[in-house]
Amino acid sequence: MPPRNRRPARQRNEAARLADQFQAAGFTKRDIARIINRDPSLVSQFYTRGKGAAFIPALNAVQTAGITDLPELATIAARHITRRTTAAGTRARVRTKAVLITPTGTGTGRAGAQAIATGSARLRPLIAEAARQGLRLAFTVRMPKTGYTLASGSRTDSPGIRRDVIQRTDHTEERSYGSATTGGFDARDFARRVDTAGGDVTAAVHQWLLETGRIHSHAHITHLEIRTWRPR
């Protein structure tokens, strides 16, 4: 019986070939995603779905920059990334969650598993704007229970806000830090922490939790929420 004809393998596009070169130089798909300010799943789609044409100029520019610092590479890449257009020539809409701070200073931003993997970049503008306006800030983290060092509801961990500890069926737990009642945190301080972490909001929050003895070093944040308000 003659062998069945197999579907020819998809030929890698230019974006995939550039991604291969980055990985050969020691970068990961997550690094590439941070450079172009997109989710790592999009980098995988360079290979599986032929995507990435819009990022070729940015990847070429970054490749010839001669530096390895991710925030600097992201800055270079941003200059070469343009929004795609519709058939009518207008800028195409992009599905994003808007970051908004109301005139009263109230703002909320959330990051789930995919956003966490790229440093919760969508939350950085919210924190930066809150810092510019001199707002207060609070946050809620979700992670496996084993990541925390203090007992659930401990006043040392979350003074006065035990009601905001939420236990999930997947053995993760949400804990809130800061509130309007307790005064929260200075958004300017957290903005500086985020800058020190190279724009990685997840890393900045993780570092604060580690410094204050609330989590183990191996703890992994799975979800993050930032809330802001104007101090009275």
Sheet of most strands: 6 strands, antiparallel
Radius of gyration: 21 Å
Helix content: 25-40%
Q: State the end-to-end CA separation.
A: 82 Å
Tally of alpha and pi helices = 9
User: Which band does the percent of strand residues land in?
Assistant: 5-15%
Strand-pairing-aware structural class: alpha+beta
Low-confidence stretches: none
Overall shape: globular
Chain-wise SSE layout:
Layout: H1 14-24, H2 29-36, H3 40-48, H4 56-63, H5 70-78, E1 107-111, H6 113-117, H7 124-132, E2 136-144, E3 166-167, E4 172-177, E5 185-186, H8 187-196, H9 201-211, E6 223-229
Antiparallel strand pairs: 1-6, 2-4, 2-5, 2-6, 3-4
Helix pairs in contact: 1-4, 2-3, 2-5, 4-5, 7-8, 8-9
Any descriptors?
232 residues, alpha+beta, 6-stranded antiparallel beta sheet
Write structural notes for this entry.
Helix content is 34%, strand content 13%. By secondary structure, the protein is an alpha+beta fold. Strands 1, 2, 3, 4, 5 and 6 form a 6-stranded antiparallel beta sheet that branches. The longest helix has 11 residues, at 14-24.
